[in-house]
Amino acid sequence: MMRILSVIGALFLGGAFLTSCTTSGRVSTFVVLPDTQTYLEQCPEVFESQVDWLVANRKKIDAVFQVGDLTQDNSPVEWAYMQKAFYRISQAGIPYSVVWGNHDIGSKPGKFSDVHNTAMANKYFPLSDYMQKNYWGGSADGKTLDNYYINFRSGDTDWMVLNLEFGPSDEALQWADSIVGIHPDKLVILNTHAYLYCDSTLHDGKDWWRPQGYGIGKELGRTVNDGAGIWKKLLLRHRNVIAVFCGHVLKSGVGTLVSIGKEGNKVYQMLANYQRGVEGSRLGGEGYLRIVTFNRKTREIDVKTYSTWNKAYHPSEHHNFKFREVDFDKYLR
C-alpha cells in the first residue's frame, strides 16, 4: 500500500506517449482499460503511464471504458488513488465509464464479493458527481453506479454504453433490457467485468471464476448472472447491440466471440486481461490497453493492444486483429 501513497502526487504529472489512434468522420475510437488491480500493489507507475497516455491523446479518443477490478483489496487508499486517476481523465474531457469487479465488492477490504456491498466504490465514484457529466444516461437504482448507462455521439453515430457490475442480478438485466429497448436509435456496447471465458465461450457454470462461485452467488434472495445469463436475458434480444468488453479471467486472459442476435445482428465480444496471474504477465499488466476503432467507412472494427509502458504494440495476433464486413447500418434500421 505504501507504493500507492508514494506516487499519488505523480498522477498529476507525466508526458505524452503518442501512437496512431485517430478519430474523425465515420470513425469512433475507444480505449478499453483491462483490470488495473495489480498495478496498485506492484507497480503503480505503469498504470500512471496509461493515464498519461490517455490525457496526451485526449483529442484522438472518443471514450474510455474500464472493465472492473479497479482495486486489488477494495481499500480506501486504493479507491482514493483511482479517484484521482479518473479525475485526470475527466478533466482531459474524455468520456469514461467504470464497472465494479469482484475485487471492488465485499464486506470489507480484502473480502472479494463475499457479499454484495459496493459502498466503498460508490463513496469514491458517487452517482451525484457522474450525473453532472454531459454524457450521463441513468442508473438502475437511482442511487449508485452499480448498473448504469452513458450516451454520447462520435463518428456520426449515437452510442450507448451499458455498464453492469460483476454478476448482475435479474433485476439489473431487466432494467438494462428496458433501456436498450427504448433507444433503438443508439448503437449499444456492454461494458462489464465477467462475461467471456479464456476459451472464447460465454462464461458459465462449468468455468473457473464464475460469479456464482463467490459469496454474492449464495446470498438469499439475490440472483447472479454470468456471461451466458447476460447473453440470453439481455443481449440476444436487441438488434442495436454491437459489442461487449470484459476482463476478470486469468489463464491466457484473452478471448473473442462473435454471436448472432435474434434480429441477425453480429455481436463482437472481447475479453482482455493482463493483470498479475495471467500467463506471461509482468509489471502488473505491462501497461497494455486496447484501442478499438469502429470504422463505418471501411466496415471494420480494428482492435490493437498497446503498452503505454513499453511504447509498443503487443507482438501476438491474438491481441491485434480486425473484424471485417461489419454491417453498421443493419444495427439501426
TrEMBL record:
Pfam families: Metallophos. Signal peptide: none annotated. GO terms for molecular function: hydrolase activity. Residues 30-250 form the Calcineurin-like phosphoesterase domain. Coiled coil: none annotated. InterPro entries: Calcineurin-like_PHP, Metallo-depent_PP-like, STPP_CPPED1. Transmembrane segments: none annotated. PANTHER family: METALLOPHOSPHOESTERASE, CALCINEURIN SUPERFAMILY, SECRETED PROTEIN. This is Phosphoesterase.
